[in-house]
């Protein structure tokens, strides 16, 4: 026996006396101490305390509902922008947008209310009893599965969800209103289109200008089998809204023999075989640029939608669902091509914005 063993034996009586019991040594076995005695919460034994906790939980859910309403109201009360009327000074952050600050605070309080309410509910009113679950194989037996469902039903019963109507009602109301914040966020994507998609920059008397040379186009300049891209006169690349205007007003001019035009209405909207169609594909809005002069077909390079320009821009292949809108044209006294109005229908891929 070593000196260390002797020292341990010498100190055993003192350790036993200090701890009031036997001291474990190597080789001893430990009995399972089990769980400590269950201590009931105040809300478990006092119904008034439980009712008070229920009101507190309901308060947090109601606060969430109010904050959601405030989130939505912020869009009406505050406007975005750097103007002094639209900002507020907050120490130590500095000047921030009233809109952004109110949106962030309201959304944060809304989510916080649901979270705090749920946690307070679980800690004060749901079942607080401890249960021992023995370890079991990964693959559950039918008995275990049945026990799981039974435990779930028991947990639902013990949570008081069905019995405590005030909590249930306010929690459902808070959770139902929170998604409204996400719906309102879509309003921040930009202004509503209103009637802007129903019309373009084309109007009666506007000349067709070559997109490459920016010069007005004469009907005599368009040869049979050619494809020319044009835009309305007065549109300049230096304009701030150039991309917005050209995205709807870009057109392509083709000329074919009058006998090759199948659709008589299209022929009447052209001039001596010169037809003008929107350059914007009616599938997803890609610019059309591929023309086959023998068949008079144009192909969208994005998804291969094919249109027959000799038949009113009809779709003959691909995912596009609508024909290309046609622009009615004529010539002025100098022989230049001019529009007689806007397109026959809204341009672009969408169906919902069509009148």
Key terms:
single chain, Rieske Iron-sulfur Protein, six-stranded antiparallel sheet, 2 domains, 8 helices, four-stranded antiparallel sheet, elongated, 355 residues, alpha+beta, disordered N terminus
Question: How do the helices and strands line up, and which of them pair or pack?
Answer:
Layout: H1 3-19, H2 42-45, H3 47-77, E1 87-90, E2 94-97, H4 98-124, H5 142-158, H6 165-185, E3 208-210, E4 227-232, H7 242-249, E5 251-255, H8 264-269, E6 274-278, E7 290-292, E8 297-299, E9 306-308, E10 314-317, E11 326-331, E12 337-343
Antiparallel strand pairs: 1-2, 3-4, 4-5, 5-6, 6-11, 7-8, 8-9, 9-10, 11-12
Describe the protein's architecture and organization.
This protein is α+β, with helices and mostly antiparallel strands. It folds into 2 domains: 42-132 and 142-189, no CATH class; 196-343, Rieske Iron-sulfur Protein. The protein has helices at residues 3-19, 42-45, 47-77, 98-124, 142-158, 165-185, 242-249, 264-269, and strands spanning 87-90, 94-97, 208-210, 227-232, 251-255, 274-278, 290-292, 297-299, 306-308, 314-317, 326-331, 337-343. The strands form 3 sheets. The protein has a 6-stranded antiparallel β-sheet. It has a 4-stranded antiparallel β-sheet with strand order 7-8-9-10, with no helix packed on it. Strand 1 and strand 2 form a beta hairpin. Helix 4 packs antiparallel against helix 6. The radius of gyration is 38 Å and the shape is elongated. Residues 1-8 have low confidence and may be disordered.
């Amino acid at each position: 026996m070593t000196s260390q063993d002797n020292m341990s034996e010498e100190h055993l009586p003192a350790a036993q006396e200090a701890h009031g019991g036997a001291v474990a040594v190597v080789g001893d076995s430990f009995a399972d101490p089990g769980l400590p005695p269950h201590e009931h919460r105040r809300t478990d034994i006092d119904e008034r305390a439980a009712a008070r906790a229920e009101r507190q939980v309901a308060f947090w859910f109601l606060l969430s509902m109010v904050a959601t309403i405030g989130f939505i109201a912020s869009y009406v009360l505050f406007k975005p922008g750097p103007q002094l009327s639209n900002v507020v000074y907050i120490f130590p952050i500095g000047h921030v947008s009233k809109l952004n600050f109110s949106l962030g605070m309201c959304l944060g309080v809304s989510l916080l209310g649901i979270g705090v309410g749920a946690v307070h509910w679980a800690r004060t009113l749901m079942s607080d009893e401890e249960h021992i679950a023995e370890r079991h194989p990964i693959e559950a037996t039918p008995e275990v599965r049945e026990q799981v469902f039974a435990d779930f039903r028991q947990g639902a019963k013990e949570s008081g969800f069905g019995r405590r109507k005030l909590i249930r009602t306010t929690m459902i109301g808070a959770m139902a209103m929170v998604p409204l914040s996400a719906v309102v966020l879509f309003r921040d994507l930009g202004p509503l289109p209103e009637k802007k998609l129903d019309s373009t920059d084309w109007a009666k008397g506007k000349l067709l200008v070559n997109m490459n040379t920016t010069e007005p186009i004469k009907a005599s300049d368009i040869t049979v089998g050619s494809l020319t891209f044009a835009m309305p006169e007065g549109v300049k690349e230096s304009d701030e809204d150039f991309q917005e205007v050209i995205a709807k007003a870009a057109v392509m001019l083709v000329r074919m023999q009058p006998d090759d035009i199948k659709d008589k209405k299209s022929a009447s909207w052209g001039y001596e075989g010169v037809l003008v169609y929107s350059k914007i594909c009616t599938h997803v809005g890609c610019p059309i640029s591929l023309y086959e002069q023998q068949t008079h077909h144009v192909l969208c390079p994005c998804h291969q939608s094919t249109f027959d320009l000799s038949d009113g821009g009809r779709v003959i292949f691909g995912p596009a669902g609508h024909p290309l809108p046609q622009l009615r044209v004529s010539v002025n006294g100098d022989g230049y091509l001019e529009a007689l109005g806007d397109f026959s229908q809204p341009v672009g891929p969408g169906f919902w914005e069509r009148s």
